[in-house]
Automatic annotation (TrEMBL):
It is a single-pass membrane protein. It is found in: Cell membrane; Membrane. Residues 120-254 form the Anti-sigma K factor RskA C-terminal domain. This is Regulator of SigK. Pfam families: RskA_C. GO terms for molecular function: sigma factor antagonist activity. Keywords: Cell membrane, Membrane, Transcription, Transcription regulation, Transmembrane, Transmembrane helix. Coiled coil: none annotated. One of its GO terms (biological process) is regulation of translation. It comes from the Bacteria. GO terms for cellular component: plasma membrane.
Amino acid sequence: MNERDFADLAAGHALNALSDADERAYQEALASNPHWDSHVRDASEAIAALSDIVEPVDPPASVRASLLERIADLPQQTDVPPALDEDKEDFAAAGPAPVEPDATPARPASWGRRRWFTLAASIVAVLVLGFGAASIGQYVTRPASVVALEQIENAPDAQSASVTMPDGGSATAHWSASTGQSVLVTDGMPALSDDQTYELWFVRGETPIAAGIFETDAEGRATAILDGEFHSGDTIAVTIEPAGGSPDGTPSSAPVVAVATA
């Protein structure tokens, strides 16, 4: 299974829409590839955001009728072998017939069909909960940083602060102690060379704590979530580090952004 297949299964798992076989495949893939857990987190956060911001409503009766009609149109399969005609020759008595090798090698079942079934089941689950079909694509595919920013802004203790850099760029930190989340939104940040990256930090007292790296677009804009739990009084800082982040887990340069939250 590749990572794209796993991401699809993670979305189905978050909606409790996987078959038993797909759930086993999902659990086995996660155990073998723990670094794919970001897909699990993103899917769970997206579903949580859906439940937080949309009021459930009763779906119209036409939805159930339409689904049943479509199911009835699907080709049916059966595992029951056809009955033998007793008036015909008893081929069993003649022994097994020779089997000609198939020139085309057998191929494993396509994950594509399973993936589409999972997504279809997810959409049905969303409809039953009262969400529109268009909403699932809009919300489930949103970046985790955008979801976190929305959750922060909806929190009762949401706060933000902005700083302006000497070259005119700006950065606004958003945080909420009750959610433990923080997000940095930038505009006009200077472009970096290919061997550099921006790195986020919580500065807790005198101790810098690495909180992930991020890139900006051509206009120096980014919405970056800080990895780890925000604590009241933290300073949210950004440094310029070698590509991939600080090699020793400590800032290798002075911060270009520092936003105090106390």
